[in-house]
Write a structure and sequence with these properties.
single chain, 339 residues, binds iron/sulfur cluster, TIM Barrel, eight-stranded mixed sheet
């Protein structure tokens, strides 16, 4: 039966989404590799290079419960000026359709403004993943204005619009600080029709899979405009990956196997050709290459039969490389996919 209005809204309240299947309903012997080979692929390989991801730091002003790279204020890893210069050189040769800046909180790298200006001066399309609160870093005043004037596209973490759901995952006061920053970004034109792109990234509060993206986007659009007058471009959903701090928490709570079972059960063969590792490469803070941010979180660099660092970059070899995959990859193939 078709549900409408409040009833439908209530059914997808963020953090109370689709419950994972019960453990033990299906044998768990199959691993990611055998699932891939069932799709007629002999190995997981890259297809092309549509994006260059760059992790400029693992430091963050927050220590969120779901963080797959275990970022926190205690981390010290920062991309240095030489590595950034090499990234700019590689990007200039490669001309990727997108450069995707991530962290940690990229804003905490003091070299970020110079790096962004260099990339934009070379006419690259640049997007940056922000947790919103780091954008208010007093050490780096004027970052929102810099992003707007440089035409940087933003992907902002926003797991919910309610104070309880945000603060439980991301820390006390984060919901209000995020709302304040979203308003500021809207004031700079972000998220408005014709303005720079401001996408929100949603991930479930607990051990559920994300609700359908279109329904959640519509819910967030209504709630954020009604409650705070905030607008955004699109909402993207992301599965909590069994990597980093989220994995540690699952293991500590005894829920790891159950969560992995739910991910395996939700395997969707249609998303295998779309996996982000097949269309991008990630450069870590120290110049090492990774297939994706999740492999970086697992400290699992690219396999040893090709270029290993940004100084050895060889686009042709990298584009079709074999990919270092593992059990955590089921997080990317669950449901509608997550990468
Ligand atoms: S975790 Fe990384 S390597 Fe594995 S499927 Fe996802 S993007 Fe690819």
């Amino acid at each position: 039966m078709q549900r409408t209005g409040t009833e439908a809204r209530g059914s997808i309240l963020p953090g109370h989404g689709i419950a994972p299947a019960r453990a033990g309903e299906r044998a768990q012997a199959d691993d990611f590799e055998s699932r891939i080979s069932e799709q007629g692929e002999r190995a997981l390989r890259g297809i092309d290079l549509n994006a260059l991801a760059v992790s400029v730091t693992l430091k963050c002003n927050q220590a969120c419960g779901h963080c797959h790279v275990s970022s926190s204020p205690a981390r010290t890893e920062m991309m240095d000026a030489d590595t950034m210069a090499q990234v700019v050189e590689v990007a200039s040769d490669l001309r990727p359709p997108l450069i995707d800046i991530t962290g940690g909180a990229p804003e905490l790298n003091p070299r970020l403004p110079r790096f962004l200006r260099a990339l934009r001066a070379d006419a690259h399309r640049v997007q940056l993943r922000t947790n919103l609160t780091a954008l208010a870093d007093p050490e780096q005043p004027g970052l929102p204005e810099l992003y707007a004037s440089a035409g940087i596209e933003l992907l902002a973490s926003m797991p919910c619009y309610t104070e309880r759901n945000v603060d439980v995952v991301r820390g006390r006061g984060v919901r209000d600080a995020s709302v304040q920053m979203l308003r500021k970004l809207n004031g700079l034109g972000y998220g408005a029709a014709g303005g720079p792109r401001l996408d929100l990234i949603y991930n479930p509060v607990g051990t559920t899979l994300p609700e359908p993206q279109a329904a959640l986007e519509s819910l967030f659009r209504d709630e954020l405009v009604d409650r705070f007058g905030i607008v955004f471009t699109h909402l993207l959903t992301m599965t909590n990956m069994p990597v980093g701090r989220f994995r540690d928490r699952l293991v500590a709570d005894g829920g790891y196997e159950r969560y992995m079972h739910a991910l395996r059960e939700a395997f969707n063969p249609d998303v295998v050709p779309l996996l982000q590792c097949r269309h991008q490469i990630e450069i870590g803070w120290d110049g090492r290459l990774y297939d994706c941010d999740f492999n970086l979180g697992r400290q699992r660099p690219v396999l040893g039969d090709g270029p290993a660092t940004v100084w050895e970059f060889d686009a042709e070899t990298i584009a079709t490389r074999r990919i270092a995959h593992g059990e955590h990859c089921f997080g990317c193939t669950a449901g509608a996919g997550s990468s």
